[in-house]
Amino acid sequence: MHHLHAHLVFVTKYRREVFNDDMLTRCEEIMRDVCQSFEAELREFNGEGDHVHLLVHYPPKIALSKLVNSLKGVSSRYLRAEYTGRINRISTGSVFWSPSYFAGSCGGAPLSIVKDYIESQQRPA
């Protein structure tokens, strides 16, 4: 049994307001599939126009940086292919995500607090 949780935040390139509700829903589906392929679980997901928040439960055999690279890479490929018109209008160039990301360990905080915070992040109207 393991209890490794990370709060991840990914920001779009140049903080462009790319996401609408439909794209956020699709992004969540993609990221949930990526997590499953790593034997991890996406416990919570939310976002706004220019960033997403994830709460991920992952096994100790997984390097968090490899999971993050896969989450960002796979989601970028799928979202760019499926929402080409919208992304081209907003013009993020050839890169979807900013190269940096936030990863915070959630070992000390009660998960309910982290989940409440992620749920409180607004989705665009």
From TrEMBL:
Record-annotated membrane-spanning stretches: none
Domain of life: Bacteria
SUPFAM superfamilies xrefs: Transposase IS200-like
The Transposase IS200-like domain, residue ranges: 1-121
PANTHER family to which the protein is assigned, alphabetical: TRANSPOSASE FOR INSERTION SEQUENCE ELEMENT IS200
Name assigned to this protein: IS200/IS605 family transposase
Species: Streptomyces lonegramiae
Gene: tnpA
